[in-house]
Automatic annotation (TrEMBL):
<feature type="binding site">
    <location>
        <position position="144"/>
    </location>
    <ligand>
        <name>a ribonucleoside 5'-phosphate</name>
    </ligand>
</feature>
<dbReference type="GO" id="GO:0006207">
    <property type="term" value="P:'de novo' pyrimidine nucleobase biosynthetic process"/>
</dbReference>
<keyword id="KW-0539">Nucleus</keyword>
<feature type="binding site">
    <location>
        <position position="172"/>
    </location>
    <ligand>
        <name>ATP</name>
    </ligand>
</feature>
<dbReference type="GO" id="GO:0005524">
    <property type="term" value="F:ATP binding"/>
</dbReference>
<keyword id="KW-0963">Cytoplasm</keyword>
<dbReference type="GO" id="GO:0036431">
    <property type="term" value="F:dCMP kinase activity"/>
</dbReference>
<feature type="binding site">
    <location>
        <begin position="60"/>
        <end position="62"/>
    </location>
    <ligand>
        <name>a ribonucleoside 5'-phosphate</name>
    </ligand>
</feature>
<keyword id="KW-0418">Kinase</keyword>
<comment type="function">
    <text>Catalyzes the phosphorylation of pyrimidine nucleoside monophosphates at the expense of ATP. Plays an important role in de novo pyrimidine nucleotide biosynthesis. Has preference for UMP and CMP as phosphate acceptors.</text>
</comment>
<dbReference type="InterPro" id="IPR027417">
    <property type="entry name" value="P-loop_NTPase"/>
</dbReference>
<dbReference type="InterPro" id="IPR033690">
    <property type="entry name" value="Adenylat_kinase_CS"/>
</dbReference>
<keyword id="KW-0665">Pyrimidine biosynthesis</keyword>
<dbReference type="GO" id="GO:0036430">
    <property type="term" value="F:CMP kinase activity"/>
</dbReference>
<keyword id="KW-0547">Nucleotide-binding</keyword>
<feature type="binding site">
    <location>
        <position position="133"/>
    </location>
    <ligand>
        <name>a ribonucleoside 5'-phosphate</name>
    </ligand>
</feature>
<keyword id="KW-0808">Transferase</keyword>
Length: 191
């Protein structure tokens, strides 16, 4: 049984930044669904490259069969990890039901880390990220935020009703956010 923590929040809320630090210090393996999709987009011979790029530019969501298979393969490749940080997934109902179908019974979902941050701050961070992402521009960001509000936030609410959400305000400096996140992990792993 794999331990899994879903890490959700608006685009630019700091999911990747915090997950990298948790991976470094707590032995969880960081799996960013977006990074896995970008790698698949670049993979020579992939039949999904154009489809993935289209979704990424439009801030829309790639069919779950593709994303979930990339996640499961990455988990199998690191099967000795303490657990997995699934960053940026599940993003909509299709993601959630597809994940439950494919992964139900194979994972222990510990909690959902929700990094909350005002959208204007998040957009500003993305516009200054400097990684050359094809979706870090005003047009794509508008669509990404719309998708987050309409499709992803309801998934966070769904987990909230199950008592699984641990919210951390990520508008603050990274070190402060990280300290609170570590407390969340410590509490979860004491159970
Ligand atoms: N707490 C913070 N304060 C200021 N800047 C931050 C903070 N956390 C992250 N950043 C910066 O904001 C940008 C976006 O961070 P990051 O890539 O971690 O976000 P993300 O949630 O993974 O975004 P996306 O959903 O677009 O992948 C990066 O340039 C990062 O260095
Ligand atoms: O589960 C997922 C995760 C991501 N996507 C697509 O990728 C981009 C970028 O994701 P980041 O988390 O910001 O790296 C996202 O806007 C989606 O288009 C996805 O479809 N499914
Ligand atoms: Mg990210």
């Amino acid at each position: 049984m794999y331990n899994v923590v879903f890490v959700l929040g608006p685009p630019g809320s700091g999911k990747g930044t915090i997950c990298a630090q948790i991976q470094e210090n707590l032995g969880y393996v960081h799996l960013s669904a977006g990074d896995l999709l970008r790698a698949e987009r670049e993979r020579v011979g992939s039949q999904f490259g154009a489809l993935i790029e289209n979704h990424i530019k439009n801030g829309s969501i790639v069919p779950v069969e593709i994303t979930c298979s990339l996640l499961e393969n990455a988990m199998i490749a690191s099967k000795d990890a303490n657990g997995f940080l699934i960053d940026g997934f599940p993003r909509n109902e299709d993601n959630l039901s597809g994940w439950n179908k494919q992964m139900g019974g194979k994972v222990n979902e510990q909690f959902v880390l929700f990094l909350s941050c005002p959208v204007d701050v998040c957009i500003d961070r993305c516009l200054h990220r400097g990684q050359g992402r094809t979706d870090d521009n005003v047009d794509s960001l508008k669509k990404r935020v719309e998708t987050y509000n309409h499709s992803t936030f309801p998934i966070i609410e769904h987990f909230g009703k199950l008592g699984m959400v641990r919210e951390v305000n990520s508008e603050r400096p990274v070190a402060e956010v990280y300290n609170d996140v570590v407390e969340v992990f410590t509490a979860a792993n004491q159970k």
